[in-house]
Amino acid sequence: QECASLSSRKRVHAGRQRILDALRLSQEQLLDVKRRMGEEMNRGLAKESHDQATVKMLPTFVRSMPDGTESGDFLALDLGGTNFRVLLVRVRRWKRRSVEMHNKIYAIPQEAMQGTGEELFDHIVHCIADFLEYMGMKGASLPLGFTFSFPCHQSKLDQGILLKWTKGFKATGCEGEDVVTLLKDAIYRKEEFDLDVVALVNDTVGTMMTCGYEDPLCEVGLIVGTGTNVCYMEEMQNMELVDGGEGKMCVNMEWGAFGDHGELDDFSTDFDKAVDEHSANPGKQTYEKMISGMYLGEIVRNVLLEFTTKGLLFRGKLSERLKTRGIFETKFLSQIESDRLALRQVRSILQHLGLTSSTCDDSILVKEVCSVVACRAAQLCGAGLAAVVDKIRQNRNLPELKITVGVDGTLYKLHPHFSNFMHETVRDLAPQCKVTFIQSEDGSGKGAALITAVACRIRDAGQR
């Protein structure tokens, strides 16, 4: 009998590992991801292939980093998820690290996210008015930087056409429109104050700027949070979408859409397909759905469903809770994987999820599933980043490149192992690049203000 139970245990273990193996990537596969990302980057930069490319490589019109002479008071807006922030940022000349900030966070109600564009922007302007009053600056006119973390096509720094909403936003009448105009129109309707909208900023660019303020070697910005994206300084001569071949410009890659034309099909699993089918944007943001915080919990839940259906977990009992989309929040992934967590604490998280009959063995397996899913995400992200830093190295014909990447996002900052797996992958796949990672302090707020400050400095110098 003992032999029988041992062999059934072995069979169960083998069954579990077979399912998990689909989520494990080899060095060859990761190199393949890096190569394909590099190809897609070139397609996005070239005029003739840009329209077909999944990685859009959008010009941001940010051409220089802070030099320390910037000064003044700036407003920054930050819209990129379910919360919206208004900030007052005071930058003082030559005091490189002295940026004084005040900010207030406002919720964006579901009806504003999914109603009309006018409602959304009226809500935003209402929040700005509240903030100015809160700061005792009612009616003030200040230069403003607007961090708008959705894909936009920019033809200058203070203009951006929204290409498509992501992250659950669906406000009508915005796609195909200039976001700065939508904001200005709402300010005009309010008739309370006037603001000089100087820069429309993507959060990755803000992240790069904030870190560049501290470290001049920082030329890449990476976000790994609810969504994921990268920007970096590209040579103007490679940017066929923009005239003028000298110097560099920051490119917003919009790399979350990598894979939308099948480039990642070889690595995609049935779990990924299930997550995609039930998402707000099926068939879109393929790479992002394999990496970012908004989706990892759902991948884990789908794996656990498969295990349970096959009798390999929770004694084969499917609870209603486990069938519910979105219960497995990404913060649970970080908590479950925390090395300080005893298995009984994992069990208490499972109980919170309504999985009351879980055993110690179940807890071990859930922890392993979380670990495999997060590791794959970090490695995929690292493979993409390896393509970026290697391209910068090749652009400059260097045998070795020293570069800093500024990083922001909750998944990167809070997950106990994500950053290590990612760093290791970049080291393995881009051995000729010596990459330092620094965490950004508030790229989307402070970063937007710094971009505005740099733009004002250059504008003022041009007027003298």
TrEMBL record:
Membrane topology, from the record: Peripheral membrane protein
Location relative to the cell: Cytoplasm, Cytosol; Mitochondrion outer membrane
Name of the molecule in the record: Phosphotransferase
Main location: cytoplasm
Keywords, ordered alphabetically: Acetylation, Allosteric enzyme, ATP-binding, Cytoplasm, Glycolysis, Kinase, Membrane, Mitochondrion, Mitochondrion outer membrane, Nucleotide-binding, Repeat, Transferase
Entry function: Catalyzes the phosphorylation of hexose, such as D-glucose and D-fructose, to hexose 6-phosphate (D-glucose 6-phosphate and D-fructose 6-phosphate, respectively). Mediates the initial step of glycolysis by catalyzing phosphorylation of D-glucose to D-glucose 6-phosphate. Plays a key role in maintaining the integrity of the outer mitochondrial membrane by preventing the release of apoptogenic molecules from the intermembrane space and subsequent apoptosis.
A single MF term (Gene Ontology): glucokinase activity
PANTHER family, sorted: HEXOKINASE, HEXOKINASE-2
Family stated for the protein in its record: Belongs to the hexokinase family.
PROSITE patterns (UniProt xref): HEXOKINASE_1, HEXOKINASE_2
Pathway: Carbohydrate degradation; glycolysis; D-glyceraldehyde 3-phosphate and glycerone phosphate from D-glucose: step 1/4; Carbohydrate metabolism; hexose metabolism
GO biological process terms, semicolon-separated: glucose metabolic process; glycolytic process; intracellular glucose homeostasis
Catalysis performed (reactions): D-fructose + ATP = D-fructose 6-phosphate + ADP + H(+); D-glucose + ATP = D-glucose 6-phosphate + ADP + H(+); a D-hexose + ATP = a D-hexose 6-phosphate + ADP + H(+)
GO cellular component, one term: mitochondrial outer membrane
Top-level division of the source organism's lineage: Eukaryota
EC number of the protein: 2.7.1.-
SUPFAM superfamilies found in the cross-reference section: Actin-like ATPase domain
Keyword match Cytoplasm: yes
Residues covered by the Hexokinase N-terminal domain: 17-213
Pfam family, any one: Hexokinase_1
Segments forming domain Hexokinase C-terminal: 220-454
Protein's organism: Hucho hucho (huchen)
Subunit: Monomer. Interacts with TIGAR; the interaction increases hexokinase activity in a hypoxia- and HIF1A-dependent manner.
